[in-house]
Amino acid sequence: MPASTVTPHAGRAGSVTAPPLARRRRRLFLGFLAAVVVLVAVSVLSLMVGARTIAPAEVLHSLLHYSRSDADALVVVDSRLPRTLLGIVVGLGLGLAGTVMQGLSRNPLADPGILGVNFGASLAVVVAIAFLGVTAPSGYLWFAFAGAALASALVYAVSSLGREGATPVKLAIAGAAVSAALGSLITAVQLTSQVSLDAMRFWQVGSLAGRGFGILVQVLPTLALGAVLALALGRLLNGLALGDDVARGLGQRVGLTRVLCGVAIVLLCGSATAAVGPIAFLGLIVPHIARRVVGADYRWILAYSAIVAPALLLACDIVGRVVAPPGELQVGVVLAFVGAPVFIALVRRRRLVSL
Q1: Is the per-residue pLDDT at 16 higher than 50?
Q2: Where do the TM regions start and end (predicted)?
Q3: Which of 17, 23, 38, 138 is 20 to 30 A from 276, alpha carbon to alpha carbon?
Q4: Residue 339's domain is classified under what CATH number?
Q5: pTM
């Protein structure tokens, strides 16, 4: 067959199946900018909407000319601003943590519960309340962080036993076992302490309300460190996605990669859970949203998750403020209504990636 009849066909096939890299990067960058715009818009709405709706001009005036004699300024700056900023950093932390978890375990259903983070933090909080008399969120913040870190370390230590080390299957099994054990201890402590039961009800539901700048300042350093580490793990997670043997063949130190992923997860999930309580589904569904847009490259998945997660968290928080006036639903409850159908859809997918 003449070359002239083959070359155009090959060129057309190449243009369909392999778009230029520059065009793909431009599309992903524009999509990222659009996500940032959405996050900014939701953040502005978070400052405006609530039991008392405040106009955008008044919000801007309150931010630029704060006065304690101004009722709008007190609502915007003292209440909604720390709530919004905390939602941004906590959402970013949970979105990145969920992405790293799914990449580390190669499990599309992985969330902060897979490494026992939520149950470890909850156990530490209930112990601090029941036996140490700590009741304020700022008081048990570091107990929650320490509990999350210890639980994650325990899961990794258990899964590392044996010849193959901490494989995805062993991580999932060890996480489920440790979570069940910690959950039993939490129940046992709560049954013997009415004070801890009452205090835990308001923390365990997951909420951005009632948290001030003090808690934000406390968790910001560890969240920032965890975010930087997680964003730097994109290439390593791409290697793990190919399988341990292929990653080792490419020169990647799989054991070190898993340790770095574990540190990032502890920093992000521990800080976020300690600040606002355990929030389910956010770290589960956001990586899937990002993956549908960008494909399988974890560098882009991490970047998108860092923006989409806080936007979704703030949007659910806004919905919770207006659906049950004059009260409000906590963001953990609203997010459960949003995340549960997505979780069911993921489970029912025929091509769901297995461990």
Answers
A1: no
A2: 28-51, 84-101, 113-134, 140-159, 171-193, 213-238, 259-286, 298-319, 331-348
A3: 38
A4: 1.10.3470.10
A5: 0.85
